[in-house]
């Protein structure tokens, strides 16, 4: 059997003492789990043609993923999970500006890696559903599993407004939930409150753009689809796609 002394030495060697490194790893892991659950919910809906998922299950998986991710990283990094939230904290002088680009990079990387994990998990389903083609538009497109795309009717200006309002509401709601001057949420239930906030935004603002409300959540997986074979079309604003992306 492994001795207790050996285990203690191993734990000491593996322990990360640098606070910034701990925060970055926490954000990386939490965003990875957040996007893993969120994109898997979309993949299940898309590749089953709606027989094993729908709009509601996609919304719910994304909201519950937020709850899990906050529990994973809240005690280490504060579970920002979102560059927009990190930026808001910088503007409020609650987070140092020099950390912002670091968190932005880590959050985007976590989303990118998670998209790769979802692609591996649903590889056979994606290939079968798309008849071996990785399409961004058309009746058998699969790019919307990973990133969000505008509905057919949406203009660029309205799409910008949609994301500003949705993301702004998310940030304002999270700040309100965490403000000690407001009616406090019972200790330990803050992640549940944030998940319900995300769920409400998805239910009310998901039809235009799929409701990503998180730059890293959209950019990381979109970059992955670009390098994985969907091509540069994933970065184009194309009106008249076959359908809007599943919600997030």
Automatic annotation (TrEMBL):
Record has Endoplasmic reticulum as a keyword: no
Keyword check for Cytoplasm: no
Catalytic activity: urea(in) = urea(out); glycerol(in) = glycerol(out); H2O(in) = H2O(out)
Keyword list, A-Z: Cell membrane, Glycoprotein, Membrane, Repeat, Transmembrane, Transmembrane helix, Transport
Gene3D superfamilies: Glycerol uptake facilitator protein
Topological type in the membrane: Multi-pass membrane protein
GO MF, one example: urea transmembrane transporter activity
PROSITE patterns, per the entry: MIP
InterPro entries with a match to the protein in the record: Aquaporin-like, Aquaporin_3, MIP, MIP/Aquaporin, MIP_CS
Pfam families on file: MIP (PF00230)
Localization in the cell: Cell membrane
Listed GO CC annotations: basolateral plasma membrane
Segments traversing the membrane: 20-39, 59-81, 102-122, 160-178
Assembly notes: Homotetramer; each monomer provides an independent glycerol/water pore. Could also exist in other oligomeric states.
Function summary: Aquaglyceroporins form homotetrameric transmembrane channels, with each monomer independently mediating glycerol and water transport across the plasma membrane along their osmotic gradient. Could also be permeable to urea. Also participates in cell permeability to H2O2 and H2O2-mediated signaling. In skin, transports glycerol to the epidermis and stratum corneum, where it maintains hydration, elasticity, and supports lipid biosynthesis for barrier repair. In kidney, contributes to the reabsorption of water, helping the body maintain proper fluid balance.
Protein family membership: Belongs to the MIP/aquaporin (TC 1.A.8) family.
Protein's recorded name: Aquaporin-3
Organism: Casuarius casuarius
